[in-house]
Amino acid sequence: MNNPFQNAQEQLARAAEVYPFPKAFLARMAHPDREVLISIPVAMDDGRLEIFEGYRVEHNNARGPYKGGIRYHKDTDVNEVKALAFWMTLKCAVAGIPMGGGKGGVTVDPKTLSKRELEALSRGWVRGMADLLGPRKDVPAPDMNTTPEIMAWMADEFAKISGDATGATFTGKPLDHGGSEGRGAATGLGGFYVFDRLRPHYSLPASCTIAVQGFGNVGANAAEIFAAHGHRITAVSDSKGGIVKDEGIDLKALAAYKKTHGSLDGFPGARSVTNSDLLELPVDVLIPAALENQITGENVARIKAKFILELANGPVTPEADELLFARGIPVVPDILANAGGVVVSTFEWEQNLAKEYWTEMEVNAKLKELLDREAEAVYQKSAALATDLRRAAFVLALGRLAEAMGYRTA
Predict the structure, then answer these.
(1) Of 146, 250, 292, 384, which one's alpha carbon is 20 to 30 angstroms from that of 161?
(2) How far apart (Å, rounded) are the C-alpha atoms in residues 170 and 164?
(3) 408 phi and psi angles, rounded to 5 deg
(4) Is 103 marked active-site?
């Protein structure tokens, strides 16, 4: 399995090949400011004490407070969290928002915990990390397997410890706990805005065929948004496998079917497909919205999509990037494609600090304006440097970071 942090370092090196950043600056970017590992003791429902490992990596705060989600996953480790923190630094810079990059995690399968155990674990993470956190220091958010309810528990625990009354230390909260309108769909909607801005540059049709790997919150929202704008969702998958229906999938019927049956398999009129085979379907647009390292040197030659939109973090490895670029298949990188989530999280932070409330229409209009601008900037940078969109996005983000850190660039 590819080490995600090694992939991140290779991406940094690829960007440095096309733009002459100072070596001292690149060395700084290759290392996070701080890595914290804590033990979280949780009294389990059966009376035993279990110790969980929790992480927070603060990568860079030159442009604003550290910002980044907390993921609960059985395979989460410090290398994954370091990579995600690095990508978040670049994501905030490419989006032009006043935030730095961080990431958190706990090595746990949350499905094995009761609600009481999950709350105890979440509050324990906050107690262990409280000295790092604050609305002007480090602002966590939801990520894989963490929810608005978990953010509410965490915000409550931090308020008890610190006395902070702004509510701005955690984002992704429920609306009645200071959350922002539009946050739930923000990553998928942001991905659509980026795609829609770039689509004419790549001569994609007005109605594209689309395969989505990952029918969770991000993937399902994205599928619905793309379908609502006239595109045809022909394949989707979740962790258990996927389905293909060439004439297009009725997403509302599919969501109801999954809720009843627990999986996508057997959906009427569709044929089954594995997650790996879904990646190789001949569609206009492939949207990896699940885990990292999905398109690699091993399967890249079989990719038939005309355009790839990374809604997951790190789904395309550096080796695959090179080969896709050589074949003329654009890859919209995660640091641009899935930036909608952190952008609206930043809007939530701004609303909390100013004690304001923005409507969903206001939030979405601000999101579209920002991502239209930055997607076009990345495309123009790729054209100017005759390079791929990932390297262009990195160069744009790194230039903004270098300026904030006082480094002179060409």
Answers:
(1) 146
(2) 11
(3) -90, 130
(4) yes
Which domains are present in the chain? 33-167 (3.40.50.10860), 186-337 (3.40.50.720)
Task: Give residue-wise pLDDT tens across range 24-33.
Answer: 999 999 999 9
Among the residues of 229-291, which ranges form H helices?
Answer: 251-261, 275-278
CA pair distance 332, 340, nearest whole angstrom: 13
82, 91, 103, 258: the catalytic one is: 103
Helix (H) or strand (E) holding 189: helix 186-198
* Distance, C-alpha 27 to centroid of its chain: 24
CA distances from 207 to 213, 256, 278, 372 (A): 19, 25, 20, 20
- Which bin fits 126, alpha (ψ -120 to 50), beta or left (φ > 0)? alpha
Residue ranges in the chain modelled with pLDDT below 70: 1-2, 410
The reported pTM is 0.93
- The rounded distance, in Å, linking the Cα atoms of 189 and 290 is 16
Estimate the share of the chain in helix, then strand, then coil, as percent rounded to the nearest 5.
50, 20, 35
116: part of which helix (H) or strand (E)?
Answer: helix 115-129
Quick one: pLDDT at residue 216? 86
Q: What is the pLDDT of residue 30?
A: 94
> Distance between CA atoms of 211 and 303, rounded to whole angstroms?
12
pLDDT digits (tens, 9 = 90+) for 36-59: 999 999 999 999 999 999 999 999
